[in-house]
Design goal:
The complex is a heterodimer of chains A (138) and B (399). Chain A is mainly beta. Chain A has one domain (15-135). Chain A has helices spanning 15-22, 76-81, and strands at 27-31, 37-38, 53-57, 61-70, 85-91, 96-101, 116-123, 129-135. In chain A, strand 1 and strand 2 form a beta hairpin. Chain A is globular, with a radius of gyration of 16 Å. Helix content of chain B is 32%, strand content 18%. Chain B has helices at residues 35-50, 67-74, 90-103, 134-138, 148-162, 166-180, 194-199, 227-230, 263-274, 291-300, 309-313, 331-335, 342-354, and strands at 16-23, 59-62, 80-82, 109-117, 202-205, 207-208, 217-226, 238-247, 283-286, 378-385, 390-397. Classes of the chains: A mainly beta (138), B alpha/beta (399). Chains A and B meet through strand 4 and strand 6 of A and helix 4, helix 5 and strand 5 of B.
Chain lengths: 138, 399
């Protein structure tokens, strides 16, 4: 059975991000002048449209910054999956990415803020790879 | 440091009054009214409340639908339109924009309408979503139910940083239900306990069902005019003393701090414009989409220090008879919440200052509490829109 949950639709500006995931080598944008990392991908540096953004690989390691554990969802695909853990993951580089955690019990006792996690590439279709995160040893 | 005379918008303070407020005829489950019909019904009722005619309206504000749709349905062609739409706080911000327009002569009588068949879903405009939007690319694929999931994420961070507990969050739901018991129009009026909240169905941890607002059908409307013209209206005028707006993100992943929201900006601006302090306030309405919304907003508005929101709401402090009367209608948690609640915070804030509930008794009457906050002269009304994204704060007063 095919993947039955909402998929992202790339646009010309975000294309390099989705391409990097498909290649299993995540890249994000950062400021050429300050090195500050940006998520989500944009045309211009937030707060400084005269700055330049460059694509660069990221470590893929980080920690759980915040979490939610949905038990219900209006979409049947997610409803069938619930409960699961949605987390805001803070990468070592400082960017915060919204994603799902895999390989964990979906309970507040099992998943803690500050928990070390690492990026996993989930090839959900031939075309789309979604970033997931799983626990790693600190 | 800013002096009073240099406070932005200070010249707009106390120029305009709210002279009419109303809900639709029925709220809760209203299977025979479309969203636009709820707008119209509430508008008629608010104009009746004010003693003004539809023909007097020359400024129109709405959100969720376009002001042109409401104007056409009502049969008016006002000279000033505003469709600022930043979620549930829009209607609170509309009060600020309407007061600004009236004070600057752009219109004389402003009508703000809201209507949503959120439960029966009759003529309910779809929420725009597209897999190519930033939300569609970077949030929706991960299954965060909106808006509960975004508020849940933020709440988890507050619990982590400050040790805020689910029991403290539940105190808000319990106290709000006690106010709802005093409101015949509230949908949920049976008493609940902290245990009931903790034992209710899990929606999205850390939120159980009773941490979340209702989904109802309801319309609401507000009428404003200049303080001079307000003398000709049939209600006690409620003066718009201060207002502020705040915004710092659209998507929850972009919120600069999950434990400090834009209410910190809108609140400070409103207090500065009005020239009042927290201790001056008699009654407070804070948008309660989720229990955490209230807890964070109390901190953002400066009623307590960062991280102390949980302690602040403990021991039923915000319930009838407590020393901080909050959400005296029963709020979005227990009274009504058709999808966007902002206009109902304004309606309740105004009614408390008009002393509309005196016949029901006073909330500090321990033996037989009523809904009216005794001698209420100064109130705060606050809306939070989208996912803690955009806020509006009003300071309202009566003579």
């Amino acid at each position: 059975m095919g993947y039955d949950r909402p998929l992202p639709q790339r646009d010309p500006v975000t294309q390099p991000y989705w391409d990097s995931l498909k290649a299993h080598a995540m890249q994000l944008q950062r400021s050429k002048s300050t090195g500050a990392w940006v998520y989500y991908p944009r045309l211009l540096m937030p707060g400084d449209p005269e700055d330049e953004l460059e694509w660069a690989p990221v470590s893929g390691t980080g920690t759980v910054y915040a979490l939610a554990i949905p038990h219900v969802h209006p979409h049947p695909g997610f409803r069938a999956l619930a409960p699961y853990v949605v987390a805001l993951v803070e990468l070592e580089e400082g960017a915060r990415i919204l994603s799902t955690l895999i390989g964990v019990e979906p309970t507040p006792d099992a998943v803690k803020i500050g928990m070390p996690v690492e990026l996993v590439y989930d090839d959900v279709t031939d075309d789309i790879t979604l970033p997931r995160f799983q626990p790693r040893s600190a | 440091m800013e002096t009073a005379s240099s406070t932005p918008g200070k010249h707009l303070s106390d120029k305009v009054a709210i002279v009419g407020v109303a809900e639709s005829d029925r709220i809760g489950i209203v299977p025979d009214r479309s969203s636009i019909a709820l707008h119209a019904e509430a508008a008629r009722n608010a104009l009746r409340d004010a003693g003004l005619a539809l023909a007097d309206v020359d400024g129109l504000w709405t959100a969720g639908v376009r002001p042109t749709e409401v104007g056409e349905y009502l049969g008016i062609v006002p000279r000033h339109l505003d469709g600022t739409d930043v979620g549930g706080s829009s209607f609170v911000i509309h009060v600020a924009h309407a007061a600004t327009a009236i004070a600057n002569g752009l219109c004389d009588v402003a009508l703000i309408t809201h209507g949503q068949s959120g439960r029966s879903k009759i003529g309910l405009p779809p929420r725009p979503a597209h897999p190519q939007y930033m939300s569609g690319q970077f949030e929706d694929p991960f299954g965060l139910p909106q808006p509960a999931g975004s508020y849940a994420l933020a709440c988890s961070r507050h619990m982590h940083e400050y040790g805020t507990t689910k029991e403290q969050l539940a105190e808000i739901a319990v106290a709000t239900r006690k106010w709802a018991a005093l409101n015949p129009r509230a949908m949920m009026r049976d008493p609940i306990s902290v245990e009931d909240v903790l034992n209710s169905r899990m929606i999205c941890w850390p939120f159980n069902l009773l941490d979340c607002c209702l989904v109802t059908d309801a319309g609401g409307a507000v009428v404003l005019t200049s303080r001079e013209r307000a003398r000709d209206c049939r209600t006690v005028p409620v003066r718009v003393l201060g207002f502020g707006e705040g915004f710092d993100h659209h998507l929850i992943s972009q919120m600069p701090s999950l434990t400090a929201g834009p209410a910190q900006y809108s609140g400070r601006r409103a207090f500065e414009m009005a020239g009042v302090t927290h201790a001056d306030l008699d009654v407070v309405q804070i948008y309660d989409s989720f229990t955490y919304t209230v807890l964070l907003t109390l901190e953002d508005l400066g009623f307590c220090a960062r991280g102390e929101g949980g302690a602040f709401v403990s021991n039923q402090r915000t319930a009838p008879g407590g020393d901080f009367p909050l959400n005296t209608s029963g709020g979005g948690l227990s009274y009504t919440h058709p999808g966007m609640f902002g206009i109902f915070t304004v309606i309740e804030g105004v009614r408390q200052l008009r002393h509309d509930y005196v016949k029901s008794g006073f909330s500090d009457d321990v033996a037989n509490p009523g809904r009216q906050v005794r001698d209420a002269k100064l109130g705060l009304v606050h809306g939070t829109g989208l996912v803690l994204s955009a806020t509006g704060t009003l300071i309202l007063g009566r003579d």
